[in-house]
Amino acid sequence: MTVMPRQTILFDLDDTLVHCNKYFDIVIQQFLDSMMTWFAPWKLPAEDIRAVQVRIDIAGVQDNGFHSEHFPRSFIQTYEHFCTLTGRTPSADESELLWKLGMSVYEFEIEPYPGMIDTLDRLRDDGHELFLYTGGEPVIQERKIEQMKLSDYFGERIFIRRHKTADALSSIVREQGFPTESTWMIGNSLRTDVIPALLSGLNAIYLKQANEWAFNIVDIDAEPNGAFETIEQLTDVPRVIHNWILTLR
């Protein structure tokens, strides 16, 4: 049997290995339903409410990183925006309800993406070293890791960062001494996974999702030094890496 050269593989967590956006979509719909009820006399279009919430949400992430409170805060600030716009008197009870609703997104039982176990098993069995690089608050991300038993694959090779930027990724690569030509970043975010990987000189696999968070969608302004592939199924990762290694022989 031919032994494949060992690769260093960093996986994103949310919407790469486990579902995330689907839970936010559920809670956002509940938020829109509440807003449409409260502001029914003004006949606000749901898309207008959503547009304001998205703008506030993205601005919060850009300013404060992946902090749990920015999401419920975006609900309250959107609510306050439309209270000011319409002249409706804000209610402390309604604001509290929105805060609890926003925070409830972190209470869902986590589900793996199809083929997560098979993909990680295959890569580990091929002799590659697996790392997890995720954005968010440690207590929330660690709960997901524990629920999915991901320590079985990543051990202590887990990095949780509030800001997933090119500087954050390049610092990890430098501190860990990863060889850039055989290191891969795999994730669903062009902004926080793919572009930082390309700027750091790594190989990148973009796991394109059908329903992506607006924050993650940006133009790619970096040229790959190695492999850069787009896939739509997590289970394609081993094939992409295997085929790239073969091209180097």
Automatic annotation (TrEMBL):
<dbReference type="InterPro" id="IPR036412">
    <property type="entry name" value="HAD-like_sf"/>
</dbReference>
<dbReference type="InterPro" id="IPR023198">
    <property type="entry name" value="PGP-like_dom2"/>
</dbReference>
<dbReference type="InterPro" id="IPR023214">
    <property type="entry name" value="HAD_sf"/>
</dbReference>
<keyword id="KW-0460">Magnesium</keyword>
<keyword id="KW-0378">Hydrolase</keyword>
<dbReference type="Pfam" id="PF00702">
    <property type="entry name" value="Hydrolase"/>
</dbReference>
<dbReference type="GO" id="GO:0016787">
    <property type="term" value="F:hydrolase activity"/>
</dbReference>
<protein>
    <submittedName>
        <fullName>HAD family hydrolase</fullName>
    </submittedName>
</protein>
<dbReference type="InterPro" id="IPR051400">
    <property type="entry name" value="HAD-like_hydrolase"/>
</dbReference>
